Amino acid sequence: MKHMAAMTNTIEYTVRVQEEDFNVSKETELLTQDRKDIGAIVTFTGLCRDEGGTLEALELEHYPGMAEAQISRFAQQAVERWPLTGLTVIHRFGKIPPGENIVLVIATSPHRRAAFEAADFLMDFLKTQAPFWKKEHLKNASEGSWVEAKTIDDKDAERWNKNAPA
Amino acid sequence: MKVRYFAWLRERTGTSQETLDLPETVKTTGDLMNWLAARDEGYAFAFEQPDTIRIAVNQEHVDTDFVLTGTEEVAFFPPMTGG
User: Fold this and answer.
1) Which of A89, A157, A164, B76 is 20 to 30 A from A121 in CA distance terms?
2) What is the tens place of the pLDDT at every residue in B11-42?
3) Closest partner CB to A123 (pick from B59, B78, B83)
4) Minimal CA–CA distance to A58: which of A142, A138, A149, A132?
5) Pairwise CB contact (< 8 Å): A102 & B83
6) Contact status, residue A112 vs residue A38, Cβ threshold 8 Å
7) Across the interface, which of A66, A123, A127 has its CB nearest the CB of B56?
């Protein structure tokens, strides 16, 4: 979905929660076509790793509606905080085998710092505040097991409070 | 009231969502957790560590002292592990 920021003079951003894969080049092209004011594109793609060959697949459960709403809340904060020219966030759900994409953040800006920081900020909040849950299905186990939340991810998200602009 | 469960709360309660009529003694989200935990073994297992459970009312995060009116969608889930 496309979001127009109400009341504030900020850019549109795109947030999608979907089962199907995404194409990084295509999504980047959508943010850069017909523009000559972009000096920096930062793309972050999170992939499913095979955990040393032991992982069969990750199963991603989400809370439909709240997932989109939470991501949009943080995307809105990002476009208010950094001078971006474009922002796209896509998060997949369902069963995802090793090697496949899970999440995409693309931030574009006239200068690199804003694009780097906005993408970093969004990933930290996607990990800790967006209602998604990962279940690991291992090759040698009949039952999957839920991935536990990591304290380090909460610490990463807290960095953005300390660095809040005055 | 519509109540939804995700991840291991869904598995332990054996339900993803249900519509419940709550007794008047259930006033807050914390009361609701205690009331649910007393329903049966599965619910007791799901809510055995209430401190680790996150709560959303109408899809926004709330605490255990949130006062319910009976018309909300309440969701219970573990700490999130997306990204």
Assistant:
1) B76
2) 999 999 999 999 999 999 999 999 999 999 99
3) B83
4) A138
5) yes
6) no
7) A66
3-state secondary structure of B12: helix
Whole-structure pTM value: 0.91
- CA-based nearest distance A30→chain B, Å: 22
Q: Say whether B82 and A148 touch across the interface (CB within 8 A).
A: no
Say if the Cβ atoms of B77 and A135 lie within 8 Å.
Answer: no
* ipTM of this complex: 0.94
Which are the contacts of A38, defined by CB distance < 8 A and separation ≥ 6? A31, A32, A85, A86, A108, A109, A110
Question: Measured in Å, how far apart are chain A's first and last C-alpha atoms?
Answer: 32
CA distance A116 to B25: 50
Question: In Å, what is the CA distance from B19 to each residue of A114, A115, B16, B36?
Answer: 45, 44, 11, 13
- Enumerate the residues of chain A whose CB falls inside 8 A of the CB of residue B6: 61, 63, 131, 133
- For residue A158, give every residue at least 6 positions away whose Cβ sits within 8 Å of its Cβ, in sequence order, or none: none
Asked whether the beta carbons of residue B82 and residue A131 sit closer than 8 angstroms, the reply is yes
Beta carbon pairs, A and B, within 8 Å: 71
